[in-house]
Amino acid sequence: MHASVLFSGGIDSTSCVHFFKKGGHEVRGIFVDFGQAAARREDAAVDVLSEKLSIPVIKLRASSPTKFGAGELIGRNLFLIASALLLGNCRDGLLAIGIHSGTNYYDCSRSFLSRVEVLAQECSDGRVSVVAPFVDWSKDDIFSYFKAAALPLNDTYSCEAGAVPTCGTCASCRDRVRLYAG
């Protein structure tokens, strides 16, 4: 079965790619540049990781005068899923996103996943299912999976500010520091 994975080059999406490859799916990544501050760095991480994971990647770019920084971006995951469905040529199979528990963002919840799954099923005549294998996992669970799979941590990028060196203050950087320490 085909699995298209929304792929940002971070720990969660890299784990998601591996999860579906390990499950025997034919996997491809979909990277969406929607004007996020980290787009250039994420794109570079996706290039390196897709080669190491041996998957093709479709790259989508959305134009907007707005530049998005760190923190909650209302509707982000909905936009990513809708963009992948429309522009990513998702005609059948699974569309996966690496959302997880432990955040208060609605678009990382089981309720969001259920609602967007209904829409995707209806829009695709039942051919595309939206899945999130880690929706009930914590960030620590995903990191444990990542480490157990021996995935290349130094090739991932997770700073919401798009900084080099990373900002160290956004939620993704704080998670990464905490995970390294654990």
UniProtKB/TrEMBL annotation:
Keywords tagged on the record: ATP-binding, Ligase, Metal-binding, Nucleotide-binding, Queuosine biosynthesis, Zinc
UniProt-listed Gene3D superfamilies: HUPs (3.40.50.620)
Keyword Hydrolase: no
Enzyme Commission identifier(s): 6.3.4.20
Reaction(s) catalysed by this chain's protein: 7-carboxy-7-carbaguanine + NH4(+) + 2 ATP = 7-cyano-7-carbaguanine + 2 AMP + 2 diphosphate + 2 H(+)
GO molecular function: ATP binding; ligase activity; metal ion binding
Protein name: 7-cyano-7-deazaguanine synthase
Organism encoding this protein: Bradyrhizobium diazoefficiens
Enzyme class, broadest EC rank: ligase
Lineage, highest ranks first: Bacteria, Pseudomonadati, Pseudomonadota, Alphaproteobacteria, Hyphomicrobiales
Pfam family, one: QueC
